[in-house]
Write a structure and sequence with these properties.
Two copies of one chain form a homodimer. Chain A is mostly helical and 188 residues long. The first copy, chain A, contains eight helices and three strands, in the order αααβααββααα. Chain A is elongated. The two termini of chain A are 34 Å apart. The first copy, chain A, binds a DNA duplex (30 and 30 nucleotides) through residues 1-3, 57, 59, 74-76, 84-92, 94-95, 107, 110-114. Chains A, B: It comes from Henriciella barbarensis.
Chain lengths: 188, 188
Amino acid sequence: MAQLSEGFESVRLSAAHADTWSEDMQDQAETALVALRRVLKATASNVKSVATKTGLTASQLLVLQVLRTQGETLTGDLARAVDLKQATISILIDKLQEQQLVVRRRGETDRRRVWVRLTEKGLTALDGAPDLLQDTFRTRFAQLAEWEQASITAALLRVVSLLNAEKIEASPILDVAGVNDPPLGNGQ
Amino acid sequence: MAQLSEGFESVRLSAAHADTWSEDMQDQAETALVALRRVLKATASNVKSVATKTGLTASQLLVLQVLRTQGETLTGDLARAVDLKQATISILIDKLQEQQLVVRRRGETDRRRVWVRLTEKGLTALDGAPDLLQDTFRTRFAQLAEWEQASITAALLRVVSLLNAEKIEASPILDVAGVNDPPLGNGQ
DNA sequence: TAAATTTTTTTTGACTATCTATATAAGTGC
DNA sequence: GCACTTATATAGATAGTCAAAAAAAATTTA
């Protein structure tokens, strides 16, 4: 999939202009955008490398990660969580099921619904796919002075608020849990 | 494509845990990762919306943006810049050329090489694809106090250095220009 | 209860992006 | 000229995605 996830290509090469622009008010914004751009690049290439390393595609990996975080999940909620259509998820789950990384289970009270959950094999596959980027980030972040951690966190949150404007506010991955039926356990 | 370009899915829902974890050293890192995650989500969905808005795919848009930034570029350098194989770029350029958004031109001293550049139509297509995310970012960033701009920029640069570790350091988009032949003008 | 409607998932068919491997063409060194 | 390398293009295969339709079950309405 690999959708590329770039969004800041049109940033001017502020580094090249730095000497002439140094005092320009806009310079700061451009520098920030270039930095953002690099963050994006780093994460995108990280996703790619983890994906090829595990033999999974990025979407598949994404779905597995959501399942690990949320436990058993409805296919529809999965689709929302990773921003794909249900048709796509359905096929994607087929593939994952063929590899026995997940299992489907029909809902009992409502037999239209289909719950998906990780298998042991799926869990180990995920463990075998350490997210290097995330790990290095955590490791290095932990080594910073506390005030710097705080300042970076604050800045990132600020950036989120700058970006979010009208858009987004969906961010379903972080708040899908507990939508309808008991998501964990064997209930419903 | 959709390649989704996420990289931080496995982040725990630190918001949900915040009350119990508040003093935990790791909490800060998790919060930072969640924030990063949201930045990624925002930019990814932005790319998608801009792409569908213009009828171009994300990769195509990306290539056009690189061309706008760098001027005439070799197909191989394009491939490196957007992290696709040459074969893929070749086909991608075919499509863009069909729509008359770019033109190919054979190198004159080295006739193996193929230069690609934006047409007028390509340029207007790009102008018609305003990057809302980037614009809102710039606008809102500009409204911040100067000290805050500085602190955000510094934090972002710090994040880049945290992420970059061994990896990356390629970041070709920002330094491909002027590799071999005169990239601009009609030289060689 | 029967019929119509809605919800949830799957299937189907088409299209596109991407990759690997191979081919073509042009340059370089001997 | 010959082997080798470099730059791009083509071919074939795989996979991801979507829209539309089908299927199955629940809900509403009459």
